[in-house]
Design a protein that fits this description.
- With about 260 residues, the protein is of the alpha/beta class.
- It has a single domain, classed as 2-enoyl-CoA Hydratase, Chain A, domain 1 (Alpha-Beta Complex), CATH 3.90.226.10.
- Helices cover about 45% and strands about 15% of the residues.
- The protein contains 10 helices and 10 strands.
- Helix 1 runs parallel beside helix 3 and helix 4 packs across helix 5.
Length: about 260
């Protein structure tokens, strides 16, 4: 069995790697489960000062969801709601990690990968990185628990563009949209990321943790009623969802019917 998430530590800096490189680190259920556990454990480690979150290999941070498991794990809105609760819990474990978290983005950062990166405190990427959330082509919505981070990061207009257009765009545009803090040469990505982590780690750790809390408190999130939250998974009961997933797996263009 391949370990879904890898953890390494050097001094006061931990590295967490999404580990599904043969599928461009496409996110499956074991990865979501393990990532949430790992981030909780690291958050409880008072000896740490910074966490770097990356994808295994050289081709992707994470290329979205592993569509091949949808028929088994997200066949309808009931299953999708349970899966969505897992995703939301994992997203919150990243956002609420007491230590600063840096997303080191190489290659594809798409769909769920972009959502994970948005939950990190800082994002640094290589010039060849690609971004986007093309889930409209699957007949899917981004649930509230996943939408929260992207919307909070780039605002209403850019979030609407990303979701409604569903286009994949380059690192320069990601910087312009404020999805990333910095773009560097691909060859320099690792060095620049860990140099940033070292600068963070050199500061007073309690101050870094307080600043994370203060920023979160000022970014007030609305309380969504349960019925409206559940509506985020209604798409999984539609015919368009079944059409979109089948077309993706068959590598054909979906013909949606609005049902």
């Amino acid at each position: 069995m391949i370990e879904p998430v890898l953890v390494a530590r050097e001094g006061v800096i931990a590295t967490v790697a999404l580990n599904n490189p043969d599928k461009l680190n496409a996110l499956n259920k074991p990865m979501w489960e393990k990532l949430g556990i790992v981030m909780g454990e690291l958050s409880a480690d008072a000896g740490l000062r910074c966490v770097v979150l990356r994808g295994a290999g050289d081709k992707a941070f994470a290329a979205g969801a592993d569509i091949s498991e949808f028929a088994r794990e997200r066949a309808d809105s009931r299953q999708a709601k349970d899966y969505g609760a897992l995703i939301h819990a994992t997203m919150q474990s990243i956002a609420h990690c007491v230590h600063p978290v840096i997303a080191m983005i190489r290659g594809a950062c798409v769909g769920g990968g972009l959502e994970i990166a948005a939950m990190c405190d800082l994002r640094i990427c290589g010039e060849s990185s690609r971004f986007g959330v093309p889930i409209k082509n699957l007949g899917l919505t981004m649930g509230y628990g996943e939408l929260q981070g992207v919307l909070g990061l780039v605002g209403r207009a850019i979030t609407s563009e990303i979701l409604l257009e569903g286009r994949i765009f380059d690192a320069a545009e990601a910087l312009q949209k404020r999805l990333v803090n910095r773009v560097v040469r691909d060859a320099d990505l690792k060095h620049e990321t860990y140099a940033l982590a070292e600068r963070i780690a050199a500061g007073a750790p309690l101050v870094a943790r307080w600043h994370k809390q203060f920023i979160e408190r000022l970014c007030v999130a609305p309380q969504i009623p349960q019925a409206e939250w559940d509506e985020g998974y209604a798409c999984f009961d539609t015919e368009d969802y079944r059409i979109g997933v089948a077309a993706f797996l068959a590598k054909t263009k979906p013909q949606f019917r609005g049902r």
